[in-house]
Amino acid sequence: MIKIENVHLYRNEKVILNNLDWHVQKGQHWAILGLNGSGKTTLLKVINGYIWPNNGKVQVLGETFGNTYIPTLRTRIGWVSNAMIDSFNWQDNAIEIVLSGKFGALRLFNDVSDAEIEQALSFMRQFHCEHLANKSFEHLSQGEQQRVQIARALMAEPEILILDEPCGGLDLIERENLLQKIEQIADGENCPTLIYVTHHVEEILPCFSHVLLMKDGKSVAADTREVILNEQLLSDFFGREVSLQIQQERAWLAVK
Ligand SMILES: Nc1ncnc2c1ncn2[C@@H]1O[C@H](COP(=O)(O)OP(=O)(O)OP(=O)(O)O)[C@@H](O)[C@H]1O
To answer: What highest taxon heads this organism's lineage (predicted)?
Structure first.
């Protein structure tokens, strides 16, 4: 699904991605865990073709960058991030935002059929935001905006769904509700390959089969969830001794 080989990216003399290798196979779901500034968002921008590495090879959904038309490829990738939220027209109604996803656009410029409206409402129902359909995006809470954004991404029936810190800014209950929804996506038929970016180990749900640990633009480790969620390995990664507890199949960390 994704093949990143020896990718090196620098801007203004700063190395942002440092000879990064990462392979995502069909059937896997990945979490990317990294400290602030480790290059996670930059990696996502590379995968979506918004920025170009200085060296290395990028292949996404079988398409090799340099030999493919990126806008068409992007319609096959759902990307949920705060960077995307900023680009919406906040006066648009929630359902218009969701419907725009069908066309890979930021605003709804197309005529829509009754079936497309029903599809949008059905995703909104799935994410408990159908009642917000006619409310303008600017008047939604952060949690509601996140749910609308995920419904929007699913409208395009993406083969890869990237969730970049979707729980950022959410309270405990909103966060757990959203994580439950993400688990439901993972359990669903025709689930896209999930890529979930976070700073928080406890958000790495059992549905994520693999974890990439990023630090200073490098891949420190990329392995199965069971291998990565290890006290010694994470202590080395964070550079501080941490204790790890498993509760309800999720790992919870505390600094010792
Ligand atoms: N155009 C640029 N020029 C110089 N430095 C940049 C540029 N874009 C990003 N950076 C730097 O690259 C590093 C990685 O940024 P990036 O946003 O990818 O990190 P991140 O892991 O997503 O961080 P966070 O978890 O805080 O969102 C940061 O130190 C950032 O300041």
So the answer is: Bacteria
Could you identify the residue written with the tokens 């392995």? 223
DSSP string of 15-46, one letter each residue: EEEEEEEEEE-TT--EEEEE-TTSSHHHHHHH
List domains and CATH numbers for the chain.
1-76+160-173+190-225 (3.40.50.300), 81-157 (no CATH)
Q: Which of 239, 154, 199 is nearest to 41 (CA)?
A: 199
Residues with CB under 6 A from ligand 1: 11-12, 14, 16, 34, 36-42
pLDDT in tens, 114-135: 999 999 999 999 888 889 999 9
Q: Which atom of ligand 1 is nearest to the CA of 35?
A: 25
pLDDT exceeds cutoff 90 at 71 = no
Instruction: Count other Cβ atoms within 10 Å, centred on residue 145.
Output: 22
- CA 198–ligand 1 middle distance (angstroms): 15
**Which contiguous run of DSSP H or E holds residue 73?**
helix 70-74
ipTM of the complex: 0.95
Q: Which atom of ligand 1 is nearest to the CA of 214?
A: 21
Let me know: does 63 contact 76? Beta carbons within 8 Å: no
Residues 5 and 31: their CA atoms lie apart, in Å, by 19
What does the alpha-carbon distance between residue 213 and residue 135 come to, in Å, rounded to a whole number? 39
Q: What is the mean pLDDT of residues 186-204?
A: 92
- The DSSP H or E segment spanning 222 is strand 218-224
How far apart (Å, rounded) are the C-alpha atoms in residues 185 and 180? 9
